[in-house]
Amino acid sequence: MQAIQDHYPAEFSHCYGCGPANPHGFHLKSYIDGERTHARFTPASMYSGGYPGNVYGGMLASLLDCHGTASAAAFAYRAQSRVMGDGGPPIRFVTGSLKVDYRRPTPLGVELLIEGTLCSLEGRKAVIDLTLSAGGEVCVTGVMVAVQFVAKA
Ligand SMILES: CCCCCCCC/C=C\CCCCCCCC(=O)SCCNC(=O)CCNC(=O)[C@H](O)C(C)(C)COP(=O)(O)OP(=O)(O)OC[C@H]1O[C@@H](n2cnc3c(N)ncnc32)[C@H](O)[C@@H]1OP(=O)(O)O
């Protein structure tokens, strides 16, 4: 199955968190499945937080950031009854705001599950609820306001 990010136009595929064309990035891959989006990622040990065994908060915010904008794009396609890669004008979002709540320490060395659900979609603005969990326990929650990107003439 192709990831949402695999449909980003080549010129917009350089994101450090999720751009397929960035050789140094995380290459996060997000998928839509019914009412929910999901991505899985295992941070390398260099992304340690201040005490051993836990993930650095900036890394966790990055994962929500990239998964949130991908989710917004996927939900917007669905709202327009379109499929990604249909040859029509691409629908892409950037992060307007991202609120992150760190609810418990996130363990390093295990696969993390990032999920997104659509809270609202009005005009160019999508609000996405996000969770990040490890071993079935929610460690981080977030709310993103994603804004549809419109190229300036
Ligand atoms: C920025 C780079 C763009 C490159 C091109 C990308 C194309 C996309 C392609 C592939 C995506 C793949 C990449 C994944 C990216 C991973 C996630 C990131 O890291 S993204 C980078 C971090 N984010 C930014 O750098 C945004 C910087 N900010 C802006 O560019 C503008 O402020 C922007 C586009 C967010 C809005 O500016 P306006 O002038 O186009 O539109 P206005 O009229 O201000 O807002 C539209 C609606 O959104 C609301 N809005 C805007 N910002 C908001 C905010 N912070 N909180 C709440 N609402 C906000 C407004 O209230 C308005 O709502 P109402 O229509 O009136 O209901």
From TrEMBL:
Membrane keyword on record: yes
Domain of life, source organism: Bacteria
Gene3D superfamilies: Hotdog Thioesterase
Entry keywords, A to Z: Apoptosis, Cell membrane, Cell projection, Cytoplasm, Fatty acid metabolism, Hydrolase, Lipid metabolism, Membrane, Transit peptide
Record-listed E.C. numbers: 3.1.2.2
GO molecular function: hydrolase activity
Family: Belongs to the THEM4/THEM5 thioesterase family.
Catalytic activity: octanoyl-CoA + H2O = octanoate + CoA + H(+); (5Z,8Z,11Z,14Z)-eicosatetraenoyl-CoA + H2O = (5Z,8Z,11Z,14Z)-eicosatetraenoate + CoA + H(+); decanoyl-CoA + H2O = decanoate + CoA + H(+); hexadecanoyl-CoA + H2O = hexadecanoate + CoA + H(+)
Membrane protein topology class: Peripheral membrane protein
Pfam families assigned: 4HBT
The protein's name: Acyl-coenzyme A thioesterase THEM4
Cofactor(s) listed in the protein's UniProt record: (R)-lipoate
Domain Thioesterase: 53-137
Catalytic EC class: hydrolase
Primary residence: membrane
Entry's localization field: Cell projection, Ruffle membrane; Cytoplasm; Membrane
